[in-house]
Write a structure and sequence with these properties.
heterodimer; A: alpha+beta; seven-stranded mixed barrel; two-stranded antiparallel sheet; 5 helices; 11 strands; about 25% helix; extended; B: alpha+beta; seven-stranded mixed beta barrel; 12 strands
């Protein structure tokens, strides 16, 4: 098993299941490193104490907070852990909700929760939870402290395992009231416009297929790197233009519909 | 303070183009600490050093971005050269298809942004929002933000269109690749029923406002106490014990919930 990011207990009523947290996503971006122009060496970042000018060991790192009075208070990892000790070790299921009711704006990162003990009891308890939640297509809401932050979390079944997605708290989601959103009375679409827009959406609709979620940037960037390596000069592209608002929505919708339906007839869709 | 947009462009759906601005949708409320060196309380600086020059600090002007093509061999790349990778025809979120809202597993969602229409594009924005709302569908498309093409989903909530960047399919870990122990005996029908009853008991509507981050307040209390010179007591977590008798624990939980 890869090194878990967290280990603790999932608590469901009076049932406790030892679990470990593993990442459910991986970063496959093409990453660059910082290099020295002079020596061509790969540079490294060091944590340096500004007073002693020496490198700081990881276990000598503290968390400094400046109070309104300008005084610095220093907290240690142990002190931060002790703030909510049980939450650093337990995800307590508080409620079950319909996963479709959660606006994705709340979702942050996803992890697999896997059984952390090999014994028959804990593994059975784990798989029982999987069974109970699979039946009902529900997400369990709980919370836990991961590194020095409390997370709200939604737990559900994916790939026959429990997956936890950390969520933002309500006050971490921006209220859109300051945005210049259209006034519903002044910008009410006509029935014709709605009918055509809905028809266009239906024409372009299908089931969600993750196969379409390909990262094209990765391959393209690797090609650029190859060309550069072979000595080619890579020119910056011209800045793309922002399309203007269409003058006549209905006309543009009708044109789009004709186009999509035409493509379908020609059998070239997809 | 009015929010500042981080990108300007358009939503493009067939021949329909709706100029929009992109805003951040979230704000981190985490208490901000700075790293300090515990023995002397001095701030810790992150310094870029050259390990081949006895860890000498490197001037920012002497730094280039590079990709290691093979060990010890680098290709330097500027932002402009990175931009040459995608070369979009126009500055637009190009919508490609629409899928039922509930179909996208939460694991695919990455970062959310709020979209607002540019002046003059309100009608198109309102229409697109209305159509997505009526069909309960989410638009999937691509857009080049800064230097990288992103997969995005457009989704409407109360007339607001949000853009979510999505993880590519190969960035999502498959459960079958994790070696997870299986029980020898499958859960018994009675255990599943009892667990189901407990799930039922705890079911309700999701109300985000119900959950408050109490940890933040506690950390601030700790900061205040320490500022006054009090030494905090270090409470230790209770070690949760793995459940032995599954059925008994479930029955007791259901019973406790009924009271």
């Amino acid at each position: 098993m890869a090194r878990p990011l967290w280990r603790g207990s999932l608590s469901f009523g009076l049932v406790n299941v030892p679990v470990a947290l593993l990442p459910a996503t991986k970063d496959l971006d093409v990453h660059f490193h910082q290099l020295s122009k002079k020596t061509n060496a790969r540079l490294e970042i060091r944590r340096i104490c500004t007073k002693e000018n020496t490198e700081v060991d990881y276990d000598e790192l503290g968390h400094g907070y400046e109070t309104d009075g300008g005084k610095q208070v220093v907290l240690t990892d142990e002190e931060l852990d002790a703030v909510a000790p049980d939450k650093t070790r337990t995800i307590d299921i508080e409620q079950f909700v319909d996963v479709c009711d959660i606006d994705p704006v709340f979702f942050d990162s996803s992890y697999f929760l896997v059984p952390d003990e090999q014994g028959e009891g804990p593994t059975r308890a784990y798989h029982l939870l999987v069974e109970a939640m699979r039946d009902q297509r529900r997400a369990a809401i709980g919370r836990f402290v991961l590194r020095t932050k409390e997370h709200l979390a939604a737990i559900r079944v994916r790939d026959d395992l429990l997956m936890v997605t950390t969520m933002r708290f309500a006050d971490e989601v921006r209220d859109p009231k300051d945005l210049p959103l259209p006034d519903g009375r002044k910008h009410k679409p006509s029935d014709d416009e709605i009918d055509n827009a809905v028809a266009l959406l239906e024409e372009l609709s299908g089931g969600f297929d993750p196969k379409h979620l390909t990262d094209r940037h990765r391959d393209r960037l690797l090609k650029i790197i190859k060309r550069k390596q072979e000595g080619e000069t890579i020119k910056a592209p011209a800045a793309p233009e922002t399309p203007k608002a269409v003058p006549n929505l209905l006309e543009a919708l009708e044109r789009s519909l004709q186009d999509v339906r035409g493509r379908e007839k020609a059998g070239s869709r997809g | 303070m009015p929010a500042r947009s981080i990108w300007n462009g358009a939503i493009a759906l067939g021949a329909v183009t709706v100029p929009i601005k992109v805003f951040g949708a979230t704000e981190d409320q985490q208490i901000r600490f700075r790293e300090v060196h515990l023995p002397d309380g001095a701030p810790v600086a992150h310094v870029l050093v050259d390990p081949t020059k006895d860890d000498a600090e490197v001037d920012r002007d002497d730094v280039v971005k590079g990709y290691e093509v093979k060990e010890g061999e680098w290709v330097e790349l500027t932002d402009d050269e990175v931009k040459a990778a995608d070369q979009p025809k126009r500055k637009a979120i190009e919508l490609e298809e629409f899928v039922p809202r509930a179909d996208i597993d939460p694991v695919y969602y990455d970062k959310p942004y709020n979209l607002a229409p540019q002046a003059g594009a309100e009608d198109g924005y309102a229409l697109l929002a209305e159509a997505m709302d009526r069909t309960e569908r989410v638009g999937i498309g691509r857009v080049v933000l800064r230097t990288k093409e992103q997969l995005v989903a457009l989704r409407v909530t109360d007339g607001l269109i949000r853009m979510h960047t999505l993880h590519a399919r190969d960035e999502v870990v498959a459960g079958k690749d994790l070696k997870v122990p299986r029980p020898k005996k499958k859960p018994a029908r009675r255990e599943i029923d009892m667990a189901g009853a407990l799930v039922e008991q705890l079911s309700g509507d999701f109300q985000p406002g119900r959950y408050k981050d109490t940890y933040r307040d506690r950390v601030m209390k700790l900061v205040d106490a320490k500022a006054k010179g009090k030494e905090p007591k270090l409470a230790r977590p209770k070690e949760p014990e793995a459940t032995d008798d599954l059925l008994a624990a479930l029955e007791a939980s259901v019973k406790a919930g009924k009271k």
